[in-house]
Specification:
With 323 residues, the protein is α+β, with helices and mostly antiparallel strands. The protein has helices at residues 11-18, 34-39, 44-54, 76-93, 140-145; strands at residues 23-29, 59-65, 101-104, 126-130, 133-137, 160-168, 172-178, 189-193, 197-206, 209-211, 219-224, 237-240, 252-257, 265-266, 272-275, 278-291, 298-301, 305-306, 311-318. The strands form 5 sheets. It has a 6-stranded antiparallel β-barrel. Strands 13, 15, 16, 17 and 19 form a 5-stranded antiparallel sheet that branches.
């Protein structure tokens, strides 16, 4: 479980955590005024749902929390109102609401967390439909149990974005992160991009136990030889030096969708880009074309600017090479 922070001051950490997840549980507060604040234009409910989808977390569960503080307590109409509004928003982002479990809960009182609550007899349970089949249940734990394990691409080249780097007494430098593709083993000669630092992996650990190999989905720490903590940083990507190693990009082409931005964006605009665990300023060097956000077809070449609601193909230049 990655307990990502909810407050907007910690959005960088929230992104680092979310980029490593297979499924997100979006907790929405049902209290009067609380839900409205979260779902408002700049609210955290919106931002977190959008980030989860953008970072590739395609499975979602919505926990409608604080049902004990609705007016009246444990109100069915309030739950239905929230479900309708959140469904409509997550559909705009790209989630299919039919595949999302909505569970009315009270974390404080334990309602519908591990077993069905007697306080909400009106709740007949959640059910989801997806191409792998249907699932249903009454409480949050069952929705978690119904998460589909994603495909683990072990046959692809190794990619492991660093979440943190620690110095551990008696052991040395230990980078930490999640294997996204490929396999990491002791003895692998890894390269860290974009810094192009090469070293041997001495050992791999998960939950304080030595591993002979780490596969996609594993959050691991691994000990590396002759590299100081100062040389490595969050956002670097580890790969196998002998099998299609990762390389830093001086620039790259991206498809962007402008969701909510005051005014126009034109060439030269330099926002901070969050990419897996890296956070770096990137310049819009050239807006190549506007495209239809649903089909991807070009609608205008070399537009002067783009605004909220537009999708575009752009050339981005990071302030330092990015992997």
């Amino acid at each position: 479980i990655i307990d990502a922070p909810g407050h907007r001051d910690f959005i960088k950490n929230m992104i680092t955590g979310t980029s490593q997840a297979d499924c997100a549980v979006l907790i929405v507060a049902a209290g009067t005024g609380e839900f409205e604040a979260g779902i408002s234009k700049n609210g955290q409910t919106r931002e977190h749902a959008l980030l989860a989808f953008t970072l590739g977390v395609k499975q979602l569960i919505v926990g409608v929390n604080k049902m004990d503080s609705t007016e009246p307590p444990y109100s069915e109409p309030r739950f239905e109102e929230i479900k309708k509004e959140v469904s409509s928003y997550i559909k705009k982002i790209g989630y299919n609401p039919a595949a999302v479990a909505f569970v009315p809960i009270s974390g404080w009182h334990g309602d519908n967390m591990l077993e069905p609550s007697t306080k909400m007899p009106w709740f007949k349970g959640w059910n989801v439909e997806r191409k792998e089949g249907k699932a249903e249940g009454k409480c949050l734990i069952e929705a978690l149990d119904a998460i589909l394990p994603p495909a683990r691409p072990t046959d692809k080249p190794l990619r492991l974005p660093l979440q943190d780097v620690y110095k551990i007494g008696g052991i040395g430098t230990v980078p930490v992160g999640r294997v996204e593709t490929g396999v990491l083993k002791p003895g692998t000669i890894v390269v860290f991009a974009p810094a192009n630092i090469t070293t041997e992996v001495k050992s791999v650990e998960m939950h304080h136990e030595a591993l002979q190999e780490a596969v996609p989905g594993d959050n691991v720490g691994f000990n590396v030889k002759n590299v100081s903590v100062k040389e490595l940083r969050r956002g670097y990507v580890a790969g196998d030096s002998k099998n299609n190693p990762p390389r830093g990009a001086a620039d790259f082409i991206a498809q962007v969708i402008v969701l909510n931005h005051p005014g126009q964006i034109s060439n030269g605009y330099t926002p901070v880009l969050d990419c897996h665990t890296a956070h770096i300023a990137c310049k819009f060097a050239e807006i190549k074309e506007k495209v239809d956000r649903r089909t991807g077809k070009s609608t205008e070449d070399n537009p002067k600017s783009i605004k909220s609601g537009d999708a575009a193909i752009v050339n981005l230049v990071p302030s330092k090479p990015l992997c």
